[in-house]
Amino acid sequence: MRYLVTGAAGFIGFHTAKVLLEAGHEVVGLDNLNDYYDVSLKQARLAEISGHGGFQFRKADLKDRQAIEILFADHSPQRVIHLAAQAGVRYSIDNPHAYVDSNIVGMLHILEGCRHHGVEHLVYASSSSVYGSNTRMPFAVSDSVDHPVSLYAATKKANELMAHTYAHLYSIPVTGLRFFTVYGPWGRPDMALFKFTEAILADRPIDIYNNGRHARDFTYIDDIVEGVLRAADHIPQPNPDYDAAAPDPASSSAPYRLYNIGNSEPVELMHMIAVLERALGREARKNFLPMQPGDVLATYADVEQLKADVGFEPATPIETGIERFVAWYREYHGVPA
């Protein structure tokens, strides 16, 4: 099968493309290789998969309508896994236009490509950030998500609405996945685990926001990729039991589904730091700071629907996942144990 994977040089996109290639599929990878974080890491990820005969790479920006139209016309993907986006909650506070260009305009271009080229299934990345100021735990896809607390979250909610519109108007099967704090080897340098590891090894203090009173549903990359690919194989159908008088946000009379994808086991930030300290064999110097704009206190995924529909079962405890991340970090950066 021929897949288009957007964000192929990104963290989740790279791992997803790699597993697809190893399974014998063709993968067309799209990425703009922007400098939001270290471009050399993105290039190194691409180098890991570029030698595979089933892989083709196209450098282009999602906001470039003509480039995306040409991409679809040239490759006619059967399935699209749309993972490219401008990421980062805090970055969105100071750089709002980047989020509209990539996450809103870019999503439209992907939807139009799917519409005009007969794509059999679009799977796209949403985010746990859409739950915003919700406090009822665990977060469920049936919950209202009308109170985002960052522009990044608002663009992801907009993606869900746009996707439903295209599913309704054009019968494009569409699945949205709300990711919960993904971590692991080849992870993003702007994420806490990477930044903490880098600082501890350099004997610099780590900044701990909200005085460490955060909890996150840390989800290991291998579990995420398995869930993404299981979802890609599960093409949604209109829900025959959908009740327009009591609408469920997670399904529709259109071929549309929304799922949480997380470990379903929130971990306190201070526990994550303690696990990291043990893996590194060093204690962190801690700089406690107040809560940042756009942050939420906790995330916790209800994944029962994804389990029921595709058999998703996260299997990696944070102790194992962090050990694997640290081993990769030391090897990649040449840091001896």
Walk me through what this model shows.
- Helix 1 (11-22) links the parallel strand 1 (2-6) and strand 2.
- The longest helix is centred in the N-terminal third of the chain and has 21 residues, at 96-116.
- The termini are far apart.
- Helices cover 42% and strands 16% of the residues.
- The protein is α/β, with parallel strands linked by helices and 337 residues long.
Helix content: 40-55%
Give the biggest beta sheet.
Answer: 7 strands, parallel
Q: What kind of assembly state do the chains in view correspond to?
A: single chain
Low-confidence stretches are none
What class do helices, strands and sheet pairing give? alpha/beta
Radius of gyration: 19 Å
> Overall mean pLDDT score?
95
H/E element order: EHEHEHEHHEHEEHEEEHEEHEHH
Strand order within the widest beta sheet? 3-2-1-4-5-6-11
How far apart, in Å, are the first and last alpha carbons? 41 Å
What portion of the residues fall into strands of 2 or more residues? Answer: 15-25%
How many beta-strand runs? 13
Which descriptor suits the 3D outline?
globular
Number of alpha- plus pi-helical segments: 11
Primary descriptors:
alpha/beta, globular, 7-stranded parallel beta sheet, two-stranded parallel sheet, 337 residues
What topology emerges from the helices and strands here?
Elements: E1 2-6, H1 11-22, E2 26-31, H2 39-50, E3 55-59, H3 65-75, E4 79-82, H4 89-94, H5 96-116, E5 121-127, H6 151-170, E6 174-179, E7 182-183, H7 192-201, E8 206-208, E9 215-216, E10 219-220, H8 221-233, E11 256-261, E12 267-268, H9 269-280, E13 286-288, H10 304-310, H11 318-333
Parallel strand pairs: 1-2, 1-4, 2-3, 4-5, 5-6, 6-11, 7-10, 8-13
Antiparallel strand pairs: 9-12
Helix pairs in contact: 1-2, 1-8, 3-5, 5-6, 7-9, 9-11
